[in-house]
Structure formats: C-alpha cells, structure tokens
Amino acid sequence: MARGLLDIESLSREEIDALLSRSKEFQPAPGQSFRRFDTLRGRTVVNLFFEASTRTRTSFEIAAKRLGADTLSITAAASSVSKGESLVDTLNTLGAMRPDAIVMRHAASGAPHFLSRFLPIPIVNAGDGTHEHPTQALLDARTILDRKSVLGGLRVAIIGDIAHSRVARSNVFLLSKFGVEIVLCGPPTLLPREMAQIASGVHLTNNIEEAIAGVDVIMMLRVQLERQHEPAFSANEYFRFYGLRPEHIQLAKDDVIVMHPGPINRGREISSEVADSQRSTILNQVENGIAVRMAVLERVFAQ
Ligand code: CP
C-alpha cells in the first residue's frame, strides 16, 4: 500500500481484505461502546475538511481518539482558506506544525494525490470531488459482509447520481475486485456511458425496476446538487422515476439490504418507509465507519 490511503483503485484485493478483517475486530459487541487502544498514543491526526461532512469527519475523529491519537479538526470556513490562502500554502502551513497524518476532503478530484507528492506526511482521502471516497467503500463492504458473509457472486444495484458520485466510483472499484456483478442506474444525464468501462462486471440501465430485479444489495446515492450547474429534475420528478419506494423492494431478493452513504434526502432519492425499514443498513454503515477508519488509521501508521 502507498503511504496514506488515496483511493481504492490502487489497492490490491489482499490489502482490502486485510482492512476489512481488521475492522471486524474493531467492531464493538452488541450494546457495547468501541474499545480504546494506545496504538497511536503521542500521534496527532489533523482532519482538514474543505467540504461539508457529518459522518466522515466525526468518525475519523472518534476512530483516531479510540486509537489514542490527538486530533484536530479544521474546516475551510474556519481556516485562512476563507481569506484566500491556497490549498498548497494551507497544507504547507499545517505540515510545518508536524502532524503525523492528515485526513482531507476537497472539492477538487485528485487534490489529495497532488498534495501527497509535496508533503512528507501520510494523507488519507476523505472524499475528493467526483473521484473517490475510499473509506466509504470500505465501510460499505464491511456492512455488506456483516449481512451476506461473502462479496463474490453478489449482485449490487447502485442507483442515482452516478455522474457526480465518488461513492459510486470507489464502490465499483472495490466490488469489482471481488467478483460482484454491479448494475449502475440513473437518468441518462447522470449516468455516463464510460462508467461501464471503469471495471469488469459493470452494467448500465436507466430503468430502476430493471436495476433492482433479483439484486442482493440496493445502494442509493444522494443527488449532488452542489455539483450540478442546472439540475434537470425537481425533487418530485426525480422521486417519481428514481426514488426507492416499498414496491421496488419486492423486485429484489427476499433478503435484500438497502444502503445509502448519507446524508439522505427523504422524498427525493428514498422514501421514509424504506429508509426506516428493517431492510435499511443506513445506521449500520455509519457505525461501521468508525471501525473501518480505525483499521485505516492503524494501517497508515504501520506503513
Ligand atoms: N457519507 C458521507 O461522506 O457523509 P458525510 O458527507 O456526512 O461525511
């Protein structure tokens, strides 16, 4: 593995397996809290978020603290970025304070890769533009494995704003390495034809019923309005054609699970009945975010 964690695409299946196995060991027993470790005592992890986040920023902070590290969270609005400081200058400034690792989210695809070439500090990608969100794919895989035991042979439908989704790309890279059959579904404007070529076992459809038929996992995506210049649909129109509703669930396998990386928009991409149903793993995904990020941080410091 390269220093830090920049993407899923460049990880081997063995490296992913090791992270998923280790994250299982970090999962708390039912009703218990996450255990505390001393592994990263004396280390400082800086969370640098140039885009909004609830789940990723908080769970990285909890994960680092559970491993004994000191943490510091900086958001763009509360930093000198709001006074015009460039990304490189901001990172060099933080680098001069000698943190031991930087977890960063940025609106520009490739920003963490670019900075990792300049800074002698491991960088963990917490989401870069429309490119990748590696720890989201890892926690999604952990959540699927908790319910299905193996990934190989599963059929997974990823539905929504594929064009702007770093979650979709990271999941496609990860799941395809394990022999998962992947159906990508969305309106033509949000489903680039090139997505069929980024990995093996990927099929495209614009029809949600066709996408869901016989699947083991339905993964819904948020419509990324912040990355669309002129949204082509109202919330009602989008929900009519691509919103997940109870009648869709009947088309999938009996034990289908419904996933969503969050934040969810009820009544746009998913109905409340489905989001709050027994099929939904949305909060399991959030919880697994801590265990997976503990495994990632531990691995980063072991490199
Ligand atoms: N899934 C995810 O990345 O959520 P946040 O934007 O809240 O971190």
| CATH C-level label of the largest domain | Alpha Beta
Total strands: 9
**Structural class of the secondary structure composition?**
alpha/beta
Small ligands present:
phosphoric acid mono(formamide)ester
**CATH hierarchy: architecture of the largest domain:** 3-Layer(aba) Sandwich
Silhouette: globular
Helix content: 25-40%
Overall tally of domains:
2
Could you state the order of secondary-structure elements as H and E? Answer: HEHEHEHEHEHEEHEHHEHH
Identify low-pLDDT runs.
Answer: none
Strand portion? 5-15%
Average pLDDT, to the nearest integer? 94
Spatial extent as radius of gyration: 19 Å
H/I helix tally: 11
Task: Measure the end-to-end span.
Answer: 8 Å
CATH topology of the largest domain: Rossmann fold
| Strand arrangement in the largest pleated sheet | 7-6-5-8-9
**Sheet with the most strands, sense and barrel status:** 5 strands, parallel
Helices and strands in order, then pairings?
Blueprint: H1 13-26, E1 44-49, H2 55-66, E2 70-75, H3 87-96, E3 101-106, H4 111-116, E4 123-128, H5 134-148, E5 155-159, H6 166-177, E6 181-185, E7 202-205, H7 208-212, E8 217-220, H8 235-242, H9 246-249, E9 257-259, H10 272-275, H11 282-302
Parallel strand pairs: 1-2, 1-3, 3-4, 5-6, 5-8, 6-7, 8-9
Helix pairs in contact: 1-5, 1-11, 2-11, 5-6, 5-11
Residues 53-56, 127, 136, 261-263 line the site of phosphoric acid mono(formamide)ester.
